[in-house]
Amino acid sequence: YLVGVGRADCTGPVAQVPLMGYANPSQVGGGLLSRLYSRAFIVAEPGASKRVVFVSADIGMVSQRVRLEVLKQLRSKYGELYRQDNVILSGTHTHSGPGGYFQYTLLWITSKGLVKPALSSIVNGIVKSIDIAHENMKRGRLFINRGTVENSQINRSPFSYLENPESERNRYSSNTDKEMVLLKMVDEDGHELGLISWFAVHPVSMNNSNHLVNSDNVGYASYLFEQEKNKGMLPGEGSFVAAFASSNLGDVSPNTRGPFCANTGESCDNPQSTCPVGGAAMCMAKGPGDDMFESTRIIGHNIYLKAKELYEKASQEVTGPLSSAHQWVNMSDVSVELNATHTVKTCKPALGHSFAAGTIDGVGAFNFTQGSVEGDPFWDQIRDQLLGEPSNETKACHKPKPILFNTGEMTWPHPWHPDIVDVQIAAIGSLAILAVPGEFTTMSGRRLREAVKSEFDSNGTPGMNVVIAGLCNVYTHYIATYEEYQVQRYEAASTIYGPHTLSAYIQLYRGLAKAIALNVTQELSSGPEPPLFNVTSLTLLPSLSAENAPATKTFGDVLEEVRQGYREGEIAEVTFVGANPRNSAENATEHNFLTVERYSNISSSWRVVLNDASWDTRFYWSKGSGGQSNVTIEWHIAAGTEPGLYRLCYFGHYKKKLSLFHTITVPFEGSSSAFQIT
């Protein structure tokens, strides 16, 4: 094959924008723990025009808006080379990235609108990573390996899982998929290019009290692998690219100690995930660490270690032709043939009451509990008054789900949920990547993989490695099995196209697999094109206005100085007169907010040893009154840090008023005093 890899920043604004994932309105960005990246991989047949692009981006999910804008840019740059059928865009599902890149109203509301700087940094980052991969294509080889990751996940809805048939459950040793599938890439001389790992775990080690933008546990695994392979480079630099992509993570949590009542400390591992005092809002899962930062590192490190082992031992080469198949489908109206006599249908989208309960990884609001198969007259009344009552047809179609948000019948100012959804498979020789538009639960993913594998087998392409890539192309929440759907925990209440959603996807992906196996992908109907709404760029974000420094101070001045000396394991900390970090994001896609610098006696100059992409640094922004704000930079000094003289530097932009209607953005920097590490 010809192989190319690329990585580009897609962080966007790190302040004031709601973080995407927990749908918690108070969880807005307030700084940076680690940068977000888009990682792109292109595989091509030498001499032929057949190509496959796989992108894994450190974002909550790929939205239809992002995908349509990326495809538009690729078409204008490359013509028909990169298209909706051969480009897969997958989100890692971090819950600590900026939102604001959605056109469907439900997600638009929870993001406080369409945030142009967030949308454009994701779109431009993805396109740039593909550009870099495209420019670096060279002859190479691919190897696949698989293995088991221990101590890194639990099923967060075990009572739903138990609803699946016993005969089916008995075929598996665990209620989560512990298998990691890894694709290793080297050039023809054996030089290392990169890897993609697929593993099912929610990147929710960082909980909904976090305000620092970061890529969570899988992002930390990428960071460790890339730091190891790009020796001597700063994070985010270097040619080796390691993507840790999402899979069927729907019911899979990294918070391995399980659910406990926050107030009493007793277990709340029950079908409703509720506590005797305080109800469901008190039931939260704990990670393996003492705090969320440590839990993120522990889970990320586990995943990294398994990937490293699989990467080093990978010997099964991937060979064979490339192909890709894609359709747009109206998911609110799919007829599914269950057997010769039985046909069922999917529904217009709707969310159930238990959607509002959230999960043990991020609890919901009010008194909603998981596992509600009855509506609540109080909330139903409010829904009817505010949003309109669901039609009898939709109510009947979704049974036993009591509908809370009847999104499929809500169209103001634009539809609340998508009808038109992408289904897509890309095959690289013996590897088939199923790009799915949401979060399949463990058993849903197993059924889908098995169905697709048997379709390949019975159409003359035996022995395919089938992997699921999650959160691709458009976000449609969850896909639970029919049996899990009956008990209506969070994942089932969020299965928006009704009880037969999974069966519909299995039918559709079988169709794509068959077309690939028989080499007739060009005969697939492309289906109804998704709409691109003219979404207003009106947002509820505070506007960026002129800023001030305190009297006698200027931007970048130190307010609280570092100590004179530190040891490893301690935290060096400095506070500056700051400015809104959004100024920097609106000015440039890649802006580094901080450096840790070490004084070199040889060159008599300061050298950058860490930047803001490092997991050892934290950048906090806090807004004061009167247009003033502070920035605090922390450096958590790692074991093995070289002794010497160091300083912490801050780089920002402030808004300055020139006249009544004219403000400009002015760059500035600040530095702490020098301090010794002994």
From TrEMBL:
Any Pfam family hit: Ceramidase_alk
InterPro entries referenced in this protein's UniProt entry, alphabetically: Ceramidase_alk, NCDase_C_sf, NEUT/ALK_ceramidase_C, NEUT/ALK_ceramidase_N
Cofactor binding, note field: Binds 1 zinc ion per subunit.
GO biological process: ceramide catabolic process; long-chain fatty acid biosynthetic process; sphingosine biosynthetic process
Keyword Metal-binding: yes
Enzyme class: hydrolase
Residues annotated as domain Neutral/alkaline non-lysosomal ceramidase C-terminal: 510-677
Single GO cellular component term: cytoplasm
UniProt entry keywords in alphabetical sequence: Hydrolase, Lipid metabolism, Metal-binding, Sphingolipid metabolism, Zinc
Catalyzed chemical reaction(s): an N-acylsphing-4-enine + H2O = sphing-4-enine + a fatty acid
Cofactor(s) it depends on: Zn(2+)
Enzyme active site: 253 (nucleophile)
GO MF, one annotated term: N-acylsphingosine amidohydrolase activity
Residues at which Zn(2+) binds: 93, 202, 439, 478
EC number annotated for this UniProt entry: 3.5.1.23
Neutral/alkaline non-lysosomal ceramidase N-terminal domain span: 1-507
PANTHER family (alphabetical): CERAMIDASE, NEUTRAL CERAMIDASE
Family: Belongs to the neutral ceramidase family.
Protein name: Neutral ceramidase
Organism, as annotated: Irena cyanogastra (Philippine fairy-bluebird)
UniProt lineage: Eukaryota, Metazoa, Chordata, Craniata, Vertebrata
Gene: Asah2
